Amino acid sequence: MRTMTILIERDETIARNRLRHALQRAARTHRYQGEIRSFESPAALFRVFSPVRWTLIERLQKLGPVGLRTLARSLERDVKSVHRDVKILIEEEFIERDEAGRLFVPFDRIHAEFEMARAAA
Questions:
Q1: What is the pairing mode between strands 103-104 and 35-39?
Q2: What angle separates helix 68-75 from helix 79-91, to the nearest 10 degrees?
Q3: Least packed by Cβ within 10 Å: which of 7, 28, 36, 79?
């Protein structure tokens, strides 16, 4: 099962250390530990995951591999705007194309983790 974990981590050092430790664990156990994508702020996350893009990913997970026009019809959106969103999500590696050019979500599970703590006084 392929898993993507989405994190908001303001400190890039924390993100790099988390990724390094995950890779080391995977190397020791030879088990897939999932993939991690870190964003430096909620605004950065929401530039990629607008509500319509999140809906697009959900629909694509339900439909399985489909063409762009089929996806646009199922979302009741125009092909041009869906294409724009698909392009961004492919660049960000949240969706992919198969050998036939059909779009699909390569992850069985997408997990988002956010934390907000009170600032030190």
A1: unpaired
A2: 110
A3: 28
pLDDT tens per residue across span 54-82: 999 999 999 999 999 999 999 999 999 99
User: pTM of whole model > 0.85?
Assistant: no
Name the average pLDDT for the chain: 84
**Contact between residue 120 and residue 14 where contact means Cβ atoms under 8 Å apart:** no
How far apart are the C-alpha atoms of 38 and 16, rounded to whole Å? 9
Judged on CB neighbours under 10 Å (0-12, 13-18, 19+), 71 is buried
Report CA dihedral (101, 77, 113, 9) to the nearest 10 degrees. Answer: 80
Those residues with Cβ within 8 angstroms of residue 24's Cβ, 6 or more apart along the chain or in another chain? none
Residue with tokens 């993939």: 35
What is the CB neighbour count within 10 angstroms for residue 102? Answer: 17
Burial of 60 from C-beta contacts in 10 A (0-12 / 13-18 / 19+):
buried
Two tokens, residue 89: 């999500």
DSSP state, residue 92: T
